[in-house]
Amino acid sequence: MKNILRSFLACFCVLGIASPAMSVTKLDLATTYSGANLHAETCRELAKRIKDATNGDVIITVHEGGSLGMKDEDHFTSVADGIVPMASILMGAAIGTSPLYGLSTSPFLVKNFKESKLLNDIARPYYDKEAEKLNQIILYTAPWPSSSIHAKRPIKTYEDIKGLRIRTYDKNGTDVLKKGGANAVVMSWGDVYPALATGAIDSVLTSSTSAVAGKFWEVLTDTTRVNFAIPLNMININRDTFNSLTKEQQEIFLKVGRDMEERQWKIAAEAMDAEEAILKKNGMNIHPHISDELAGKLRESGRYIIDEWLKKTGKDGKAILDEFEARR
Q1: What is the pLDDT of residue 21?
Q2: What does the pLDDT read at residue 273?
Q3: Strand ranges (DSSP E) for the chain?
Q4: Which residues of the chain fall below pLDDT 50?
Q5: Which residues contact 73 (CB under 8 A, 6 or more apart)?
Q6: Is 95 within 8 Å of 171 (Cβ atoms)?
Q7: Residue 73's pLDDT is what?
């Protein structure tokens, strides 16, 4: 069934690429996010800017909410294989294909957006090289606000993690929370609210932005800012698709990508307090700080993840972290 779906999507998306005789090139962009979600909005803004900059010669259709039948973990390989020309890819979801992309979700590696931006700037050439190996180009990276735990109770101590049926966005988060006794599971965004509504899960590790987009106040009561990580999304385009564009269009894509990256880093840095205010207005309890005991236990639980990441990424991983530690 999966192979049939992949074949259908490949045909569907190839038909969207214009032949030289056509005046308009149509591209599809897959994302699991929708509506007011920060990373759905950035996809729509990208499409608008590309359309405006090319005078309507390139039209990007954003397929929100996983409407192409793909989950987060499918996007990276789907762009590589040309099944979909473009996608908004949660970096942590690409760990299975390329461990390098697990860096931004490594727990407690960065303390704030300034450090996250520095780490991204250092790692970006390595990200680009890895994408090139897999037949794609990163147009830009875009951060999420820092990850919080949204649940039916505040997370005050390490013991409070025990027994949580919690959704995480990648293997790193799952491993750390399992060490604390949680029943943690990686789950694509489109599956989260139904799982909360049916009781399959009772908590979520995600940003305040996603909590607002998901209207978590309908099913949860407390948001605890644990500052677990500042994950990144990347907007990628298939290399063959990019090469099929005119030289002028390629330059437009790269420039718009640079502009969007600058925009998204600024927006994300400002979003957390505003989004938490929306959660509070709708009845959720906001806990902006955690105890030193809880922070220490979480860091201790996650320390091995960096060690494992270094083993898998070798000299490139070491070079990234060495420069980061020297400049932070």
Answers
A1: 45
A2: 87
A3: 25-30, 58-63, 86-90, 136-143, 148-151, 165-168, 183-186, 203-206, 222-224, 232-238, 285-287
A4: 1-2, 4-5, 14-21
A5: 93, 94, 96, 186, 188
A6: yes
A7: 92
Full strand arrangement of the beta sheet holding 25-30? 58-63, 25-30, 86-90, 232-238, 136-143
**Residue 262: predicted pLDDT:** 96
**Domain spanning 148-229+282-327: CATH superfamily:** Bacterial extracellular solute-binding protein, family 7 (3.40.190.170)
Alpha-carbon span 323 to 328, nearest angstrom: 8
How much is the pLDDT for 2?
Answer: 47
What does the alpha-carbon distance between residue 169 and residue 185 come to, in Å, rounded to a whole number? 8
DSSP three-state, residue 229: coil
Spell out where 97-195 has E strands. 136-143, 148-151, 165-168, 183-186
3-state secondary structure of 244: helix
Does the CA dihedral 66-71-76-79 come out positive or negative? negative
**CATH 3.40.190.170 domain locations along the chain:** 2-145+232-273, 148-229+282-327
| 2-145+232-273 CATH fold | D-Maltodextrin-Binding Protein; domain 2 (3.40.190)
